[in-house]
Every structure is written in C-alpha cells, then in structure tokens.
Design goal:
The complex is a heterodimer of chains A (111) and B (123).
Chain A: E1 9-12, E2 18-23, E3 35-39, E4 46-49, E5 63-68, E6 71-76, E7 85-93, E8 99-102, E9 106-110
Parallel strand pairs in A: 1-9
Antiparallel strand pairs in A: 2-6, 3-4, 3-7, 5-6, 7-8, 7-9
Chain B: E1 3-6, E2 10-12, E3 18-25, E4 34-39, E5 45-52, E6 57-60, E7 68-73, E8 78-83, E9 92-100, E10 109-113, E11 117-121
Parallel strand pairs in B: 2-11
Antiparallel strand pairs in B: 1-3, 3-8, 4-5, 4-9, 5-6, 7-8, 9-10, 9-11
C-alpha cells in the first residue's frame, strides 16, 4: 500500500486550473525531494516535475510543483485535453531500510 | 538520446521464476543506476529495487528482499530483474527506469523509462 496519499480523481474543463495534492510524512516528503510522473493510458510513466518544482526540458510551463512540510502539490494551469492521464507523486522514504515510494495516483479527466 | 528497451511479455506458472531484461543505449551504461518498478493491472506504481552497474551493487525494497535479484552486464549494457516464487499477485507490467542523478541515494528521480514488460502468472 502506498505511503503517499493522493485524491483518486480530479477534473476540469479546458483552460481551467487543476491542483493535485500529495500527503506524506517526515520520512519521505518531509526529508526528501518530490517528483511527479504523468502516465498516459497504456504507456510508461513520464517525468513531469523533479526536485519539488523543476520541469524537465520539453514539459510545458503549465505544469508546476510545490512542496511544504510533508505535503506537495502539482498544478496544471490552462488544462488541455492531452493532459487527461494518471499522475503520481513520488519520493524516497527513509523507513524500512529505504525505498522509493509512489503516491496512490490521481486520474485527471478533462470534461 | 537514452533508450531503455525491455524484453517481451512472459507467461509463467505459479512457483516459477521470470527474468526480464532492459537494454540501454545512447549513454554510458556503467554510470547509470537502474531501478525496477512494477504496476499491477489497474493499480499504482511500486518500486522493487535498483542496481549501480559500475559497482555491481543492488539494493531492494524490503517487500521483495529474498525474492528479487537485480543484476547488470556492463559488456552488453543490459540490466536484469529476476523474480522468483511467482504468485498470481505478481502479474504486472514491469518497468526499468534510469535514475538521475545516478549516485544520489535519496534525492533522485527517473528520467528515462523502458516500455514495460507484462508478466502474467497463471496456472
């Protein structure tokens, strides 16, 4: 079971802003950096945000990340139809001899 | 451009083992750290472990300790994940992914992913 908690779903109309939360603890988000991955149906995950708020080359600036304490969030502004996907937060967790943990995942639907 | 190409789908019997490969190209394989992540049907992502090919050192998630072995062959730029004592709950798509920065223990991310390998465990 995931140790990072996300809402199961989020939705918006084209052009709207959508925010996804990711709640963790002191052993993961509280002490390590947060990354976000986008997974389109039937494909491998793709890195969207790394080190809390950095965008890899090629990721539109509509996507932004932030972190505060033991929580993080991903914002998608100017929502587009191609943003319909599953989104996962992730971070290293220092417990249980160390492991990389993913969030429960959020399905974003563009209405 | 880095590419990770994985082996094809597998169907296995309960109790058997499976070995999935991940061949890297477009970079210096020995400097990578490669992780394996799996995703059961309709479920989320789960990290299994990683290997640093240049050191030949692997570490595993506690959940899979004793049942998974991750290795690397520097001569062919290929990483392997072998999972033993398979059960139906191991049916999943298995991904390899490259860690960046390669030698950071905890503050890293996965910047390149393989296409995934479906492993089906069924009697």
């Amino acid at each position: 079971q995931s140790v990072l908690t996300q809402p199961p779903s989020a939705s918006g109309t084209p052009g709207q802003r959508v925010t996804i939360s990711c709640s963790g603890s002191s052993s993961n988000i509280g002490s390590n950096t947060v990354n976000w991955y986008q997974q389109l149906p039937g494909t491998a995950p793709k890195l969207l945000i790394y080190s809390n708020n950095q965008r890899p080359s090629g990721v539109p600036d509509r996507f932004s990340g932030s972190k505060s304490g033991t929580s993080a969030s991903l914002a998608i502004s100017g929502l587009q139809s191609e943003d319909e996907a599953d989104y996962y937060c992730a971070a290293w967790d220092d417990s249980l001899n160390g492991r990389y943990v993913f969030g429960t995942g959020t399905k974003v639907t563009v209405l | 451009q880095v590419q990770l190409v994985q082996s094809g789908a597998e169907v296995k019997k309960p109790g058997s083992s499976v070995k999935v490969s991940c061949k890297a190209s477009g970079g210096t394989f020995s400097s990578y750290t490669i992780s394996w992540v799996r995703q059961a049907p309709g479920q989320g992502l789960e990290w299994m472990g990683r290997i640093i090919p240049i050191l030949g050192i692997a570490n595993y998630a506690q959940k899979f300790q004793g049942r998974v072995t991750i290795t690397a062959d520097k001569s062919t730029s290929t990483a392997y994940m072998e999972l033993s004592s398979l059960r139906s709950e191991d049916t999943a798509v298995y991904y390899c992914a490259r860690q960046s920065p390669p030698h950071d223990y905890s503050r890293f991310y996965f910047d390149y992913w393989g296409q995934g390998t479906l492993v089906t465990v069924s009697s």
